[in-house]
């Protein structure tokens, strides 16, 4: 139960200190620390990353959603293909999905040229991959549950009954 | 005939909250823990339904008592959540905020000279509302030693046995106190024994963090003497949409509706559409908001304990009610804290004399601001106390 609570809070803000998590729950700080260590050891907690709005920065960051279709044979499973693709650092997420295509792959790079080269030189030539459809991300409105707009200003009266 | 205010208006002083509002508004670095409304926006589904109703041109009056569909949805909600069974045709009226419902009840049931006992500390509108209706308010102080719950002893000490009516607000603004069933039972007995009408403001019912909210109207023999107030402002973060309701037996709702139909006509139509959608599809949003408030509540209580300001364990609404250190009045402390550290809180005596020596601290504010505000309060205690 405490695992679920700690996970929820870290999902909300991975930078909450263990002291603050303890204050928000019925747990002692040492229990929070132990819970996080256990979750890390068990491979439940896989990392802590910042949610970045790249549009708010000067530097360009190119991202693409890539649909992949594959054919399997007796020796090759989805897992085999995924393992091979996931090793590339350009691939930021990779999921097997239902529907018209097999894999939903997210790719990041510094330029359209770099991302295109990666798809055409590293992904498309993989023998099991029969088709790739690349969608460049033009604008992102929400990432990891966080809206990237200006947000709602707090326009409440500063003191009210 | 000049524009001289009527005596009953002159009898009511301006709200003590106003002055703090003015000081807080002058500065731009203030973190306000003085806000009595949610920091969340209305769930998007409810806002979307309101927009859709406008697009469809649903901008006429509704039935005086509110749209029938909404009254049905309210009837379903209150019976499911609080075991309150009311007939949508005869026993429910939809109002412009629970505040209007409270005002309607005072005007419908209080005769000139009637005494209305008010459990305090409590929301600032009850006393003025009783006075505007021609009644005489009788404060019933509750004590920190009782966790600010209303007791029969408090009612007796205040002389409420001779009153005509009793106003309750639990979960409570400003203390955060709740009244579990075991504590309400003797109050219900007292009301029956002394033939009191009960006005029960349950606007914070959803914001109950330990145990379940119980309504006094569910006790035997109480339904016929109780008006229950609730609304969408707190649970659904819809304060500005102004939508509440009252539950009472048919004759009582007829009486309140008579005042309402001449005064308000009907509650805002757009808000009624938002409320209908809120009841229909926003349970998860409420659960999420309540979860957030509960975490903040525990955070704030922990921090007050760490910095050495005694604070009883508030279990409802979104307020805690710590004690100011010895040698300070609540007003001085709140004012100096605002000037020194830019943290706004509300002195407890604004909510009745029994709130003296306390501060109302609202946690309807994001955790980042709460953390910073508590650090500033800690610094203030180190510097000045």
UniProtKB/TrEMBL annotation, chain A:
Pfam families xrefs: AsnC_trans_reg, HTH_24
InterPro entries: AsnC-type_HTH_dom, Dimeric_a/b-barrel, Tscrpt_reg_AsnC-like, Tscrpt_reg_AsnC/Lrp_C, WH-like_DNA-bd_sf, WH_DNA-bd_sf
Keywords: DNA-binding, Transcription, Transcription regulation
GO MF: DNA binding
Keyword field contains Transcription regulation: yes
Residues in HTH asnC-type domain copies: 1-71
Entries under SUPFAM superfamilies matching the protein: Dimeric alpha+beta barrel (SSF54909), Winged helix' DNA-binding domain (SSF46785)
Keyword Transport listed: no
PANTHER family per record: LEUCINE-RESPONSIVE REGULATORY PROTEIN (PTHR30154), TRANSCRIPTIONAL REGULATOR AZLB (PTHR30154:SF34)
Protein's UniProt name: Lrp/AsnC family transcriptional regulator
Taxonomic classification: Archaea, Methanobacteriati, Methanobacteriota, Stenosarchaea group, Halobacteria
